[in-house]
Batch of 4 targets.
Target 1
Amino acid sequence: MSVDEAAVTISGGAVTLRTRREEVVKRIRHALLTGELKPGQRIKEARLAESLGVSRPTLRESLQQLVHEGSLVQIPHKGVHVAAPTPEELLDVAEVRVSLETMAALRLAKDPQGEAMDEVRAALDRHLAAIDSGDEVQTDVTHFELHRTIWEMSGSVTLRKIWPLVGSQVQRALSVDQATMRNPERDAELHRRLIRVIEEGDEETIVAEVRAHIQASVAEVVRRLA
């Protein structure tokens, strides 16, 4: 069966929250992260709307938000498809992440024993537990949530506001990373080291570690995609 012919239904049942469009966006993002929706796959509106229990107009609004963010693409005369990032796009997202995630890490490092770092450590523990469980879907979800927590607990209002846009690109990059080179031991060690470096608080080491953490992974993905 081709990607276009695959059934477009995702788990979780019908949407019941009042803010339906936001919930639909959240559910589709989750499906993108976990691989329920795959790069290049066509979104068949009628089937997906029925699966989520929402109207076609509500679904279209949600899809257009995700098109604007770059997670989906609108192809003339062919409908909406899941975006398939190019190596150039992955490298570009990595460069943006390096700058902004370094900013977040440096802000967190100012209070290594504070509540914000407690939240980051808790997110790391959840990610490590998911890795140990062997649950690949939960591992991917907690991986994304760990990086989101670093941004959101940094105390920067600006980083928190722009996370939904950048986060969708981070989500795509992480999905490709895991699809091309899943390595639980490597994943666990990289994230333990990243959080340890933030806790230790040396600015030069943090800058170098964040850059290495992000760019080493994307460089390997690009090499494998070539």
Target 2
Amino acid sequence: MLTVAEKSARKFAKETPLGKKRRARRINRILAEVYPNAKCELDFETPFQLLIATVLSAQTTDIRVNATTPGLFAAFPDAHALAVANLGEVEELIRSTGFYRAKARNIVKLANDLVEDYDGEVPQTMEELVKLAGVGRKTANVVLGNAFDTPGITVDTHMGRLARRFGWTKETDPVKAEEDIAALFPTKDLTLLSHRVIFHGRRICHSRKPACGACPLMTLCPSFGIGELDPDKARAMFKYEMAPLA
């Protein structure tokens, strides 16, 4: 007898490209209803702050970064200040984010790049951003989408995991996954789509054991059944503002 997960996978096994696109867009519409306030969860006031915060967010949580950046930005409010910072002082300020020595080197070098090449301002193109120290496509898309309103897909661990569970892509390479996902949606929707999917990954569709039994996408997901199926137990797994006791 097939498991629930096997039945879900079989249900969408012969889906046409048009069917996948329609299902993907329906998923996005449902996520928009479930997470009407989905947004970048990193605190920032300027493009520079968002850029630095995103670099610091690697291998840690946004919550941890948000607890760290007020002290960092109080000491070094812009690229000009950070470019001449004492490396040891920066390391101490960001120690709690993990990998702090490498991150400190990157953000100080990044600040120097901004000062030398862009007069301290954050550039507004993918090509320029990815040349900066510690900046890849994921970071660049976060900055472009949230600081400059240039739509793009943020393929972090949540987006990559959920996109594969949804059957939007089979790729583990972030660039190839980004291309597959972007092909399913209007360009204007990509930044908010990223936020919604990331919200869903943090709150319901967890890495080790998703809360399948209480998921609003259960009828549209080829991976339904890989997690907890009991609705009450699944609902108890919800996190952040969706948690039962929140």
Target 3
Amino acid sequence: MTAAHPTAPTDRPRPGLRERKKIKTREAIRSAAYALIERQGYDATTIEQIAALAEVSPSTVSRYFAGKEDIVLPHEHAGRLLDALRARPADEPWQTSLRHVLRTAVDLGTAEGTEVTRLRGRLLAEVPAVRARLLETVSATGHLLSEAVAERAGQGQDRLEVRVFTMSLLGGLMEVPLYWAEHGFRDDLTDLVDRALDGCAHPPPAPNS
């Protein structure tokens, strides 16, 4: 089998000094936000407090993140995941390709550690503003994903079937962190992603009689 895209995400060059400084600042802001939210709650945490703990100005926080919700919702991995999808073999079954890419997504999303990942899950389950912001970002992510889906299927990006497949997939995956948080983080997150993919492909089985 031949790959659909010649360059894998791991082949990307190492970021330059300026980009590494940006990444460091972004991580400092996020770490400050997580610490404050864990200590005093989401609503009580302000951009000014986050800036002070991260030792940057409030304007710097605003330059990196449009709002508090964006601080706790990582969006920067979308491009890497789409590259990973495009790099899968063109004749590989969709479920196999998606399972591979989404396991990569879990690894990236949990790289900050278990406590941060669970905090983010609790915020999605408990804070309407965070959940609403996630819904907004799904639209943009859906547009990008539909490009990759259309390329793979050899169809137009605006074709109804492409749009329905893309948004059905994203809608199903959005339920994973909510379910995980609502059930006390008992399940393995990768297993839940696998179950979500299966659920998108098949209706729920009938209960045993």
Target 4
Amino acid sequence: MKAKEVPQIAGAHLFEPTPHADARGFFCRTFDADVVRSVGLDPAAFVQDSVSRSVRGVLRGLHLRSGAGEAKLVRCSYGRIFDVVVDLRPGSPTYLGRAFFELSGEAQATLYVPAGCAHGFQSLTDVSDVSYRIDRPHDPAEDVTIAFDDPDLAIDWPLPVTSVSERDRRAPSLAEVLKQREEGSPK
């Protein structure tokens, strides 16, 4: 497994495993504490694992957390997704930077998304399973959502959006979220 920096998002990393394939399928390590530690992250900081399943065209995001934020490791364990990270940390050298990835069950790469960054993805296959390893217990009161179709972000989602949650459908624009932040509102 090797770690690569993501230049568009300061502090983000892509962990690429080395799958061993044969006639039975493949085997690969998807998490390695030593490799995580080598880029300055504490592997013991991750306290919760979650998984989502989506069908082709489903879009989830853009999500982040208020307060101390939430760092996460994201991996597509089955299928393929178009993954997006937006840096919303005001002091970051890559503030408002965006990075795009195709994560897949074949590659099993894991993306580290730093706290303070918005994250979302779209399923590109009939079924996509996405695994998350999160560094804080989830608190729904801290959930923040930004419109996936925000014109200021101008994200070119690869497929027509077939389904989003009601929360994502009603999400405010990036400008509204940033204004609420400046005014000291929790969301």
